[in-house]
Each structure stands twice: as C-alpha cells, then as structure tokens.
Amino acid sequence: MKTTLLKSEDYTRSPWKNGGGIFTDIADAHRAGSPAKDWDSLLWRFASTPIVAPGPFSYMPGIDRLQMVVAGRGLVLKAPGQEFDEREPFTTVRFTGELEIVTELEAGPVEVVNLMARRGAAEIALLALREPGDRPLSAGTHLVYAVSGNCSIRLNSEEFVIPDGSTLKVELTEASQLALVSGLAVLGSIRLAG
C-alpha cells in the first residue's frame, strides 16, 4: 500500500475542454510515453469544478464520466431523450462523454466532483462517505477527497487525517479495508484494465 497526501494548494487548474469554465485537477493519469499530457493521452482524471451558469458540457468521445454535486443543490443534466438528476447532493450519475448535455441549475451555482476515464482503459466508481463504517477496497487507485472540513479514515489498521479540501491517494496491490472514522469524504476508485 502506498499513500500520498495531495494538498489542495498543490492542485492545478485548467480550462474545461470546451473553454466554458475552469476545473481543479486533483489527480490524473496519462498514457506512458505520451508527448503531451492532454485530453488525447488521458487515462483518467479526478477533478472538481463549479457550475455557475447553465450551459453545454464538453464533448469527450471515448470518455466515461461519473459526477456528483458536493456543494449546492438543484443540478439537472439534460440530454436528448434523457435526464440525469443531481438535485440532491452526493448523488452519483454516470454518462458518456459523447452525450450532448446541457446543465440546468434550479437553485443557483453548484460545485461538482468528476471522475472520468478512457473507455476500456479503466473501471471507475464514485461514492460519498457520509456514515462511519467499513467498506472493502479492491486493488487499484483510490482517492479520498475531504470535501467539507477535515476527515479521518482508517486503512486496514492505520489512521489518517485528511485536511479540508485535500485528498489521500491510496495505491493498492491487494484488497484492503477502508473505514470512515469522522467527517465527510468522496471516494473515487480507479482500476486500470489489464
């Protein structure tokens, strides 16, 4: 098990693919040997972003996306013939980057967390940790993001305090146990294919 604390002051900021806003890049991975770390070489990305006005989502062919509102409420994603309801915070929705999505804000701006991965390159999961308790973690990369105040977790028998806004990156070669001790966190999990 390898753990790395990613501090909020070290996160990078980048424009959305369509230029409509700015996201905070918490952690990502790109294909080895790629000349540039860009959308074409992306394997996965965990990021947060404010959505302050209704508008279109970026077109991201070949990318699977998970999203969750972590501040504010009332977000609805509208696509042709379907709707993704994120009105309640900490609800995870899954959609593909090819969908033509337009946001609707029913109660003002929101902050969301996104976990995206190149289709076929990784399996991803995104969930809120709100209640103390144990949960199994499979081998892979896991990101525990302290979304509102400090949070405490236990990995196997080791305790960690994650400062507000920071993220604990956990790289596992075998299954482990994660317990939320206190606070509120979002857990992003990535398992690379092969």
Brief sketch in words of this structure:
By secondary structure, the protein is an all-beta fold. It is built from no helices and 18 strands.
Record keyword descriptors for this entry.
6-stranded antiparallel β-sheet, 194 residues, 2 domains, 5-stranded antiparallel β-sheet, Jelly Rolls, mainly beta
Explain this structure.
The chain is mainly beta. It has two domains: 10-121, Jelly Rolls; 124-192, Sandwich (Jelly Rolls). It has no helices and 18 strands. It has strands at residues 2-6, 12-15, 22-30, 42-51, 63-71, 75-79, 82-86, 92-96, 102-105, 110-118, 122-129, 133-137, 140-146, 151-155, 158-162, 167-172, 176-182, 185-192. It has a six-stranded antiparallel sheet, with no helix packed on it. It is globular. The model has no long low-confidence stretch (mean pLDDT 93).
